[in-house]
Amino acid sequence: MTSIIELDGHTLTRQQVARIVKKEALVVLSHDSEERVKQSRVWIEKRLAEGQAIYGVNTGFGKLSHIRIEEADNELLQLNLLRSDAAGVGEPFPIEIVRAMMILRANALARGFSGIRQDTLQLLLDCINKGVHPIVPSQGSVGASGDLAPLSHLALVLVGEGKAEFEGVVLPGAVALQRAGLAPVRLQAKEGLALVNGTQAMTGIGVVTLNEVERIGLAADMAASLSLEALKGIISAFDPALLAVRPHPEIEFVGGRIRKWLAGSKRVTKQGEVRMQDAYSLRCIPQVHGASWQSFFYAEGRVQIEMNATTDNPIVLESGEVLSGGHFHGQPIAFAMDFLKLGVCEWANISERRTERMVNPQLNDGLPPFLAMNPGIECGLMIAQYTAASLVSENKVLAHPASVDSIPTSGNQEDHVSMGTIAARQVHQIVRNTARVIAIELICASQAIYLEKVEEQLAPTTSAYLKKVRQFCPPLTTDQPIGDEIEALAVYLLASDELVELAN
């Protein structure tokens, strides 16, 4: 049965967003939010009746803010804003990201600081619930003044313009609304600006990506566990007393998780049994993976705040005063996404090094070269490591911080921007690349364990997960193409909550 999630502008979580995105829950406005939205609109109309000049309500936008707009043109001003700002280009965002953007914009408006009418907000909620998804190009936002281009493409559908997907078909916005049993709104003063001035594109990407990053981080921990078994890794490096002397909590919980998952394994060794020390890619798993988890937790905290924040301009305060500020600026999320990029990249970097360790006959402790059944006539998984190396290198290019760049816009009125949406788009791609790198490590560990014929010596937890890996890529008995298998396993890693449940 589909559940109901109330939007109140204060308590939304990334897990709730995931449920709504998957259409496992419907959204409604909380009673308190209804009252705040109504009062916010009362203040806007009162200030207009008093003849007060309000930015973007009865003035132009950006560099044109000095131009006063006649009352008769206030509605046209808002419609023109959507039309002129809908200048995005590139491939459209996936529907899951568009849905996240819609949810976050509705939640921001539910806080009651934006002056929008309840009817307009309700149409946005109805589109979420009935599956009307605007077509939103992925490129064109500089991450300040809000995500103007993406959100304008989103908002155009509410006025019966633009394009939207409904029941698998891309339609003109008005037709999509009609087929869903909805009618477009006619925007009034402030409403166009309230819909497009915010950080919901970058934050929407961030929310969807964080849910995937959690899964990929856990997959990295599991892949490392299987690699430790494949290579007779030294479990002494994960000793709790040892890890405790450097008390980063992430180091300790990665170490604890891997100890738990390897409990009962007869493949891991102790210091001095096979070798005195492992290479860094094995020995330093708690430190490297732990640092990547630090970037995840930092980004999660910033995104959690931003999901429940007011990010438009001007703001209608509870006192009725309408003030212009800079809450639309995406710098907090830009930094968070750039930091997250580094953490995810490092999961891929160290994973590829473990893969190299398993396939390289000079490093793999007696395993067949490149994990081939018949080395020489067969290349085994040699080129799978090439693929991992290529993806890791691509990640390094994408990891360049977008947030250090800025290009002035709007006649230099908007003279510093965040490029946060670029950072979010980059981390979204890095996560996909990293899922493939980890899939390759899992396949290599599976093959090494198969060649050694030691499945019965694995820990119960890793043994159970190995069976899942082999559903996607059974052990190789001869050379064969495995690109499809790598991709299918990567898609599973991005989507499955199996390890999230296991970790909890």
Give a quick summary of the entry.
It catalyses: L-histidine = trans-urocanate + NH4(+). This protein is mainly alpha-helical. It has 19 helices and nine strands.
Quickly list its features.
504 residues, mainly alpha, Fumarase C, Chain B, domain 1, 2 domains, three-stranded antiparallel beta sheet, lyase, cytoplasm, Phe/His_NH3-lyase_AS, L-Aspartase-like, HutH
Number of helices: 19
The fold-level CATH name of the largest domain is Fumarase C, Chain A, domain 2
Name of the CATH superfamily of the largest domain: Fumarase/aspartase (Central domain)
The succession of helices and strands, N to C, reads: EHEHHEHHEEHEEHHHHHHHEEHHHHHH
- Give me the secondary-structure category: mainly alpha
The rounded Rg comes to 26 Å
Cross-sheet strand order for the largest sheet: 4-6-7
Classify the oligomer.
single chain
Q: How many domains, as an integer? A: 2
Work out the strand percent: 5-15%
Q: Classify the helix fraction into a percent range.
A: 40-55%
pLDDT < 50 stretches = none
Sketch the major β-sheet. 3 strands, antiparallel
What's the N-to-C terminus distance?
Answer: 25 Å
| CATH architecture assignment name of the largest domain | Up-down Bundle
What best-fitting shape do the alpha-carbon axes yield? elongated
Protein name: Histidine ammonia-lyase
Family: Belongs to the PAL/histidase family.
Catalytic activity: L-histidine = trans-urocanate + NH4(+)
EC number: 4.3.1.3
Structure notes:
Belongs to the PAL/histidase family. InterPro entries: Aromatic_Lyase, Fumarase/histidase_N, HutH, L-Aspartase-like, Phe/His_NH3-lyase_AS. There is a cross-link at residues 144-146 (5-imidazolinone (Ala-Gly)). 55% of the residues lie in helices and 6% in strands. With 504 residues, it is mostly helical. The chain folds into two domains: 3-198, Fumarase C, Chain B, domain 1 (Orthogonal Bundle); 206-312 and 322-405 and 417-503, Fumarase/aspartase (Central domain) (Fumarase C, Chain A, domain 2, Up-down Bundle). α1 (14-21) crosses α4, α4 runs antiparallel to α5 (118-130) and α9 runs parallel beside α14. β8 and β9 (322-323) form a beta hairpin. The chain has a three-stranded antiparallel sheet with strand order 4-6-7. A two-stranded parallel sheet has the order 1-2. It has a two-stranded antiparallel sheet with strand order 3-5.
